[in-house]
Every structure is written in C-alpha cells, then in structure tokens.
C-alpha cells in the first residue's frame, strides 16, 4: 500500500488554500498553518480573470465563483471630471477571453477554498518556521509552537514579507517600495447607480465596482513617500485627494466611516528570484513574485501557481520552469501599467489620455487590451474534480 504523502502549507491566504485544495485532491495529507487567528482576510475584494477561473475549474470551483459575477454592464476608464476615455462591457470581456471577469470579496473566495479541505486541515494562530528545506534523501522540516512537522512538500504561501522566501534565498534583495500607497473600502452605498470604472488622475487613481451582494468595492492609489499616514484619519485623506472627483466617488466617501478605510503601502519584487523552489519547498503567490496591483493579477497568479504546483508536485524544477517566466512577465507589465496610470507630468497625462481615447476608438478598450496574453492562460491539465477514481481522492492522469 502506497504511503500517503504529506504537504505543509505555510500561509492560509488564497494561494496557500488553493494549493492545499489541489494537493488534497491528489491524495496528499495537507496541513495549512496560518499565523492569524482566523482565515478571514482583511476586508477587501479581488478581481478574478478568466485565467484564474480556469485554474479554479481544476478543483471544481470555477462555476461557483463565476456565479458571483456582478459586472453586467458598461465600464472602462475615466478622467477625474467624469469624461470617459475608454469603454467596454462584460460581454466584450467574455468574447475576447472566453470567460467573465468576476469581482468578489476575498472572504467569500477564502470560504469556498477552505470548504474544499478536511475540517482538521487548517490550523489558525499557528506560526511556523522553515527549519530545513529537505532534499531527495530527507523530508523538509517545519517548526511550530506545537512541535516539528516533517513534509514531503512545503508550500511557502506567506505573502509579500515571506520568511520562507528569505530562508530559501537569503542573498536575494527581497521587496522594494513601489512608489505608491493604496486605500480600499467595501461598503453599502444606498442609492448609488454607476458603471464600473477606474479613474486616472495626476499621480492618483480611483476605482468603483459593484459586488454581487449589493455592496460597493472602491480602491484608490496615490504616489506618496513610503510609510505615510493621514494626520487625522484615512477617510479624511481620501476626501482631500478625491472628494472633488466625479460621481459616484463623493457618494462612496460620504457612506464610508474612517474605520472602513484600509491603507497599505505597495511593495514588489523588482529582481526575480532565481527559482521558485529549493529542496522540497516551493513558493507561491506574493512570496514568489509580489507585484503591484495595477493589473489585478496578484491573486490570479497565486491561484495559477497553486494549480501548476499540484500538477508538478513530483518535479519542482518543472514548476519553476512553468511559472517563473510567466509571472516575471506579468509583474513587469504590472509595473509598466503603474508608471502609466500614476503618471505625474501634466504634459505626459494629456498625451496619455489622448492616446487611450484614440486607441479605444480604433479597437478593443485599453482595459481589455491590458489582459492580452494573461487572461487567455489555461492550466496544464483539464478539470479533474469530477474525474476522480474511487481510490481516495486521487485523479486519473489526463493527457
């Protein structure tokens, strides 16, 4: 009788839970170690593009998440005065990429992912340290407050400040400040009617999008020195920076309480890692390739990582070969977009807006063009969640 292999996942975010679910379906015994007291993430939303939805198909969640799509009308890019630079629609996105863009609360996605795992698979308030990355002749070792765990595979899914990454690659430079900070709110806004949009100003952007549950997800970004904070509160800071922008931005700000507003500086990995694995340890998500949120692909790429890792769990060099070039290219594009939409030169902004409007009249909206080569990605295996053999949770090999 074959021995059940064990995987330890350090980090219970989206990438870690997706990896755990995919490995569990392959018959692995999985333990997820999350240092927070609960899996519920800090309140914000996530946009899932067709690439990550196809990845979720592999573990049987794609259609459930697609059913949460709220974007059913026009959207696009605007100026602070409200002028549309570029417009698109949900139908255009589906036609171009073979599927919708789905915006949902992160907590909803985490809930669906966690439900794929056995009840005892996730340990919260469980800090973990990688003690040994292992090799072909010995298991990896993870130290927790409750003792040491040995694993055939350790998944480092511990985010942008990843301790697992530092342990694997101590000579790597790590993350750098991206030059801007972000604010996010998820709130009800009674009576607000609007088309989903992102608005580009001078060194500032704002986005407003509806959620399926009737709430509104809004985010903002601005070029600021690292480590800054409002002298009063972050709602007041948003009012100073965005209070005179077009509707529905004033209505969103009026509905928000100071405690609703989250602020975080953005950091990214400027120098790609030499690999996404070492020994028996593999990195996924921000731990491997933290990137600016300007393409909305951070969580999407983490989901892709997780599914590809489960596919190559017996060959980690193949995992690195599959993921490092793609995520490096996506991260590079996210940095390019950040420089474009957070531009501070008045002359540059005028030229940018003119070019965006002209390009959008000549073809697909810039919003959709930004996903070319990204949203059309497909996982290396067909969905297997409904194609399991009776032997435990193992799947058949599908060419």
Describe the protein in words.
- Helix content is 32%, strand content 24%.
- The protein has 399 residues and is of the alpha/beta class.
- The strands form four sheets. Strands 5-4-13-14-15-12-16 form a seven-stranded mixed beta sheet, sandwiched between helices.
- The longest helix is centred in the C-terminal third of the chain and has 26 residues, at 316-341.
Brief sketch in words of this structure:
By secondary structure, the protein is an alpha/beta fold.
Low-confidence stretches: 386-399
| First-last Cα distance | 26 Å
Average pLDDT level? 91
Morphology call = globular
User: How big a fraction of the residues is strand?
Assistant: 15-25%
Percent helix, as a range, is 25-40%
Helix and strand composition category: alpha/beta
């Amino acid at each position: 009788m074959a021995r059940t292999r064990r995987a330890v996942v350090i980090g219970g975010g989206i990438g870690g839970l997706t990896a755990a679910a995919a490995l569990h379906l392959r018959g692995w015994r999985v333990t997820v170690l999350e240092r927070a007291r609960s899996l519920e993430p800090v309140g914000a939303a996530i946009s899932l593009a067709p690439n990550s939805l196809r990845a979720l198909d592999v573990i049987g969640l794609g259609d459930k998440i697609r059913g949460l799509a709220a974007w059913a009308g026009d959207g696009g890019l605007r100026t602070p005065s409200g002028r549309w630079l570029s417009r698109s629609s949900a139908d255009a996105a589906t036609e171009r990429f073979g599927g919708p863009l789905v915006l949902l609360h992160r907590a909803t996605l985490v809930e669906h992912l966690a439900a794929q795992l056995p009840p005892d698979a996730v340990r919260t308030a469980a800090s973990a340290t990688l003690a040994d990355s292992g090799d072909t002749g010995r298991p990896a070792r993870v130290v927790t407050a409750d003792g040491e765990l040995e694993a055939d595979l350790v998944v480092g899914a511990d985010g942008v400040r990843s301790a697992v990454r530092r342990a694997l690659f101590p000579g790597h430079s790590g993350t750098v400040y991206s030059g801007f900070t972000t604010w996010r709110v998820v709130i009800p806004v009674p009576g607000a009617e609007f088309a989903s949009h992102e608005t580009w100003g001078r060194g500032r952007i704002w986005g407003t999008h509806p959620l399926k549950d009737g709430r509104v997800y809004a985010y903002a970004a601005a070029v600021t020195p690292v480590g800054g904070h409002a002298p009063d509160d972050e709602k007041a800071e948003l009012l100073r920076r965005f209070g005179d922008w077009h509707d529905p931005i004033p209505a969103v700000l009026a509905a928000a309480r100071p405690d609703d507003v989250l602020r975080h500086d953005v950091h990214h990995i400027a120098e790609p890692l030499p690999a996404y694995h070492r020994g028996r340890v593999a990195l996924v998500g921000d731990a491997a390739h933290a990137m600016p949120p300007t393409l909305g692909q951070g969580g999407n790429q983490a989901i892709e990582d997780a599914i590809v890792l489960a596919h190559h769990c017996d060959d980690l060099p193949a995992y690195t070969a599959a993921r490092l070039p793609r995520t490096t290219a996506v991260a590079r594009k996210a940095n390019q977009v950040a420089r474009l939409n957070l531009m501070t030169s008045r002359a540059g902004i005028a030229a940018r807006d003119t070019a965006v409007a002209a390009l959008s009249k000549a073809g697909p909206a810039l919003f959709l063009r930004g996903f070319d080569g990204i949203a059309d990605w497909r996982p290396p295996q067909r969905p297997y969640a409904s194609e399991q053999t009776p032997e435990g949770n193992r799947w058949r090999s599908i060419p």
